[in-house]
Amino acid sequence: MNFRTLLVSALILGLGALVGCSRESPDQSVSFQNDVFPILKASCLECHVAPGSEGYQASGLALSTYEELMKGTHHGPVVVAGQSLNSSLNRLIEGRPGVDPSIQMPHGQIKLPEDQLLIIRNWVDQGAMNN
What we know:
The protein has helices spanning 3-19, 32-43, 54-59, 66-71, 88-94, 114-125. By secondary structure, the chain is mainly α.
C-alpha cells in the first residue's frame, strides 16, 4: 500500500468519524422530558409560567408542562408537530429572518446555543411527542 492510498483512507475514516459524532441527528429520537423540557426550564420558564409571569401575561404562553406548550398562546399553537419550519416556537427561538427582534426568544437574553436549537427542531420534526 502506498503512502497516497494510506493518506486517502485515513482522511475518509476521519471524516466519517466526525460526521458520526453529531449528538442529535435527525433520526435520533428526541425526548420531551429528557431533552427538550430541561432546555425550556433553564431558558424559558422564568418568563413563561402561568398565571403571573411577564411572558405569560404578554402572550398567554406557559411552558411548565407539555400540555401548556402545546396549547400555545392567545393567538394559537406555537408548535406544529412535524413541521419546525412552520412552528412559531422555532421561528422565535432561532431568530429567523422576518422575526421582529423585540419578540425573539429568550427575550432580552443571548440566543440559545445551536445544539439546543437543533434538539428542539428535531423534536418538533419528529412529531413533538410527549415522551
